[in-house]
Amino acid sequence: xxxxxxxxxxxxxxxxxxxxxxxxxxxxxxxxxxxxxxxxxxxxxxxxxxxxxxxxxxxxxxxxxxxxxxxxxxxxxxxxxxxxxxxxxxxxxxxxxxxxxxxxxxxxxxxxxxxxxxxxxxxxxxxxxx
Length: 130
Fold this sequence. Notes:
CATH class of the domain at 17-103: Mainly Alpha
Radius of gyration: 20 Å
CATH architecture of the domain at 17-103: Orthogonal Bundle
Helix content: 25-40%
Distance between the termini: 47 Å
Strand order of the largest sheet: 1-3-2
Largest sheet: 3 strands, antiparallel
Shape: elongated
């Protein structure tokens, strides 16, 4: 008979669904790619309903206050697996962006020739802490 192992909680390698969805969406955003719920479900291994719920959570300030953009996917770009579901209605795709406020610009530095106004903007507090 094998030894009984005591469960000591979740291993550290297990991440929350919200974190996985967030990381996938931010990586897609770096490539300027929009993803459907079907594509997100395939990439993360979670169901479409769970992915949709996590996107809603990511809008909340306590989970990052992200901006979740939504648009209709063009008919000619809809994947074969989504066509069947798309017959019931449009196929939506999503993009995730950080909801950081924009740094005010200084018009006097436009077309300057030095780094002032180009590379000297401060990093947002949340990025500096990461």
